[in-house]
Design goal:
This protein is an alpha/beta fold and about 230 residues long. About 40% of the residues lie in helices and about 15% in strands. It has ten helices and eight strands.
Length: about 230
């Protein structure tokens, strides 16, 4: 079973993808971005090519290049680089997952496909299972964001027995306002030691009370990081 060097917890920065005025990716500033997060914010875990990074608006080639740059510039500076590899195409998602493993990423995350949507828990898990199998050595995280995907399968339902189907499953990025669903995810899976990463900044304090082990968000500030500093 995949096991991260350290449990993914605390603040995880959802990174933007820097662009030039011409709409090209500005790779030259990613090294500075890493230094800013580490030195100014005290944040050493990142979530790349997600919603904040507009990953699904990039080409597969661009996503690969962005992932490579973050892994390269973050070497010996960042603790964990998690790459979002979700796509409408299973093959593209598998390609991105395999690429993340090849470049030395620390984990992968996947959203539900949202054009031809999975209509049941089993269908969604089968999709996720196929992606996870493309990177069997990497921890796998499900990215739950139903407001954007339109997939209304409750996270609590999905997590029931998920490691039997996806042995590399390590946790959940929960980007939804349904705190009842989130609370049930935590309460019913305490023995598994999953990472429960909350993704709605405005409700973070409530999620922490309910058992969130970390936060993935675009609002990364020194004041907020105090919550996880020893």
């Amino acid at each position: 079973m995949a096991s991260p060097k350290k449990k993914l917890q605390g603040l995880v920065a959802a990174t933007i993808t820097p662009m030039t005025e011409n709409g090209e990716i500005n790779f030259s500033v990613i090294g500075q971005y890493v230094d800013y997060l580490v030195k100014e914010q005290g944040v050493k875990n990142i979530f790349v090519n997600g919603t904040t990074g507009e990953g699904l608006s990039l080409s597969v080639s661009e996503r690969r290049q962005v992932a490579e740059e973050w892994v390269t510039k973050g070497k010996d500076k960042l603790d964990q680089v998690v790459i979002h590899v979700g796509a409408l195409s299973l093959k593209e998602s598998q390609e991105l997952a395999q690429h993340a493993a090849e470049i030395g990423a620390d984990g992968i995350a996947v959203i539900a496909p949202f054009f031809l949507k999975p209509w049941s828990k089993d269908v969604l898990i089968n999709f996720l299972k196929e992606v996870a199998a493309a990177a069997p050595a990497l921890p796998f995280y499900y990215y739950h964001i139903p407001a954007l995907t339109g997939v209304k399968i409750r996270a609590e339902e999905l997590l029931d027995g998920i490691q039997d189907k996806i042995p590399t499953f390590q946790g959940l990025k929960f980007s939804d306002t349904d705190l009842l669903d989130f609370g049930q995810c935590v309460d019913q899976n305490r023995q598994q030691q999953f990472a429960f990463l909350f993704g709605v900044d405005e409700q973070l304090l409530s999620a922490l009370v309910m058992g969130a082990t970390g936060a993935v968000g675009s609002f990364v500030s020194r004041d907020l990081s105090i919550l996880w500093l020893n």
